[in-house]
Structures are given as C-alpha cells and as structure tokens.
Fold:
Amino acid sequence: MFRHLVSRHRRTTLLSILVLTGLATAQSTAALAAEPPVSGARVLAHFDIAAQQQPENITAEPDGSADLTWLGARQVVRVTPQGKVTVLATLPAVTSGIAWAEGIVRAPDGTLYVNYNAGPASGIYRIGHNGGTPVKVVALPGVAFPNGLALDPRSGALFVTDSATGTVWRAWPRTGKAELWATDPLLLPGTGPDAQGYGANGVKVRNGAVWIGNSDRGTLLHIPVGPHGEAGQVTVAAQVKSIDDFAFTGHGDTVLAAQSNLDRLALVTPGGTAQTVLTAEDGLSTPTSVAVSGQLVYVTSAAYNSGVDPNVVLGRLSR
Structure:
C-alpha cells in the first residue's frame, strides 16, 4: 500500500510539473507574439533642412553605423549608433539644374557607391570607406532619373533604377560599362490621380533575384536573375502602398519598407499584407529608406512633405 501511495504521489507531482511547464511555455510564446517587430524607436539625429540635409538613402556598416546621402546637400555622411554625424564626401557641384545624391550601397571591402542625379555629371561615384574625393566610375547617359542602387555581391554588378522611365540598369564599376537590364509595364510610373512620376524606386539583390519597389503603383516586385545574368519575368511579390526603399530583415524574404507619403514603416512578407511597425509618432516624416544592421534598424526621414525636422530614426528589430 505504501508503494502505491508513493507511486500516486510521484504521478501527481509529475503531472503538476508538466502542467506548470506547459503554462510557462504558453506564456512565453504569448509574450513573444506580443513583442512588436520593431521596438524602442527614437530619433537618433536631427538634420538641418535649411542646409538641404534631407536623407534620401542609407546603407549599413558592420559596426552598426550607417552611411546615408543628403539629397540636396550632395553629401554622404556616417551616423553612429550614438548619433555622431560625420561628413565623408561631397559630390561635385554643377552650374545649373538639379544635383541630388540618391542611392547608396556598401561593397564588402567598405567602398561606397552613390548614384548622382545631376545632368551631365550624373553617374555612379565611388567613395573610399573613410571618405575622400568622390570619383565617377560609371556614366549613366541613358538614365533619366537614377534613383535606387543595389550591389550583387556574386557578380560585382550594380543595379540602378530609373524612376522616370521605369527601367532597371546594370552597371560594372570596374569597367565603367552600363546596360539596360530590365523593362516591363510593372516597372513604369503610375497613371492615376495620385501618381507622382516615380516608378521603379528602391532596389535590393537577394537570393539570386532583384527586388524593386514601385512607388506609384505600390508594389514590391521580384525579378529572378537568369543563368547568364539576364532578367527573368517581373512579378508582384506584395502590395505596399507608397513604397520607397526597403531592407530585408534576415527572416526569409520579409522586408521593412519605407512608405514615404504615409509616414510609416511596414513589415512585409511576400504574399502577405503590410503590417505597420513605425509611424509619425516615432519621428517618421516622409521616410525614404531603411537599413538593418544586426538588430539595429535605421530609417531615414527626408521631410519632403512637411519641410520640418529631417532625421534618422533608430529602432531595434525583434528576433
């Protein structure tokens, strides 16, 4: 009888442990589910709009810093996670017309490449990791509005979006060659009443494909790179209203997308819906681009619409 009582006690104790463990696991799972995708957002650095310090594009550094372009100031600057801002380079002045520093990307060796939209001076410029005098390495005479810029680490090619004509170009910084790579109706600017003339805009290369954000049409596009480097069929991966540039989170093909005219940052999984993760209350004002460095998330606010407080917002990505 004593043995039966002991056995019954052990079974009861084991059952209690299992129940408590299950409750703890459920509570932990619920807590993780409730954790926002991006948290702790704050304005890391404020910029001077009178000096045309409006951040247009951004790329991450391995140490957690971020390099960004100031559109009208024609400058490339570095911002540390502590908010220190250092000017790395100033693109050459022009005598007339616009002179805008647009897309920026970092090569594995630390070299920075920047799209410069400036009439005859337009092209892709190379800047050393620690700054210095920009050098034009690729002329872009056939590109009307060079905007987004992405690097294919496998081939060393740079992909450039022309937002005005809705085309994608491929450039080779070592040779200076540039060629039209992709054209498709899905890349063109919109024609509706809200269209602003911006078709193919943000661009990234990932998993053997080129990804494009079409701002006017509110679409995230997917273009596979063929076995000989050719462009495959353009398809719509997701609907994201007012998408500008974006960054992959590291979780599959999920991206964080800047929704410029909505003052929002969205978490987007291809085939799913856009989930708002940051808003104007977090400091966003015409957000144009995103960079992810580990768990750090940088979002540029160009303040094109408000004309008030261009900045860069820093948050933390949940893992």
